[in-house]
Amino acid sequence: MESASELVEFPLLLTPIDSHYRACTIPYRFPSDNPRKPTPTEISWIDLFLNSIPSFKRRAESDASVPDAAAKAEKFAQRYADILEDLKKDPESHGGPPDCILLCRLREQVLRELGFRDIFKKVKDEENAKAISLFENVVQLNDAIEDEGKRLENLVRGIFAGNIFDLGSAQLAEVFSKDGMSFLASCQNLVPRPWVIDDLDTFKMKWSRKPWKKVVIFVDNSGADIILGIMPFARELLRRGSQVVLAANELPSINDVTCSELVEIISKLKDEQEQLVGVSTSNLLIANSGNDLPVIDLTRVSQELAYLASDADLVILEGMGRGIETNLYAQFKCDSLKIGMVKHPEVAQFLGGRLYDCVFKYNEVSS
């Protein structure tokens, strides 16, 4: 169910002969580990995906577009649980050894085989509508901050607050289904700086020099994440003269925004003059990343994105899946920023931080 066109390597990925790119950030196993026996790290990640099955099953049961959804959701839960238990017995089964990319791919395969195309469609549509109604107010609050550095920090906090809307995290999915989430309250309640990785001050210095001509942003979730987090930030880049490419998934996965959904969202955010609250969108491009998972392997992106990104001078990977669980240590030929919130205890432990800690990892490439 991956992209119909041939996928290629992301052109700005730095892959020198002596430094092989690995998409997955956390080492699940080492060459010395027994290939027939799961490692403690593999077990903990398999358990994390096992724990998420009930929330995925509930979403699948309520998918009105699928006939016999309840029975098929039960099949999904059983089949995916069996696959995960198989991986505990033999890590090389099902295309293993397991890592977050394989575990996500196997889950999507089971859902799609049973006819589930987009089990989060309803909640995505609801959250997009809510966030669209708040967009102008959030932008005006940002615009009212005169100090450039403080305005940037407020925009960054908005990205973190929006990124909380993540239904791939079992804990957050539970909270969300009970209470919903307030974007502005989330902005105020972020864990205090310094964050577990905190290069914001260095980024601010570069930002103040207005350096980037073209920025590629790999976007994450629907709702508050894309509309109240990323779009105000992208608008600020546009206002400062950057061309901005937003790269979104080709196919649905969890509550990640897809390329076609993003086109529709932006058309609703623009006014009759094709502006985002007074800022022209002539330099805003939307690209299909070719991806169909909540994580991404940058050796497999669409040719469209590769073409549009080839001359970018800043790459941003946003969200836990794309910027932390995968690609945190990826190196690029241009400046790069990995930004996201830590929403799994296993990731927090690996990074030596707190649950709901923030990652702002900026790498500047000297010209």
TrEMBL record:
Pfam families: ARMT1-like_dom (PF01937). One of its GO terms (biological process) is coenzyme A biosynthetic process. Keywords: Hydrolase, Manganese, Metal-binding, Nickel. Residues 52-359 form the Damage-control phosphatase ARMT1-like metal-binding domain. One of its GO terms (molecular function) is hydrolase activity. GO terms for cellular component: cytosol; nucleus. The keyword Chloroplast does not apply. Its cofactor is Ni(2+); Mn(2+). InterPro entries: ARMT-1-like_metal-bd_sf, ARMT1-like_metal-bd, At2g17340, At2g17340_3_helix_bundle, Type_II_PanK. PANTHER family: 4'-PHOSPHOPANTETHEINE PHOSPHATASE (PTHR12280:SF35), PANTOTHENATE KINASE (PTHR12280). This is Damage-control phosphatase ARMT1-like metal-binding domain-containing protein.
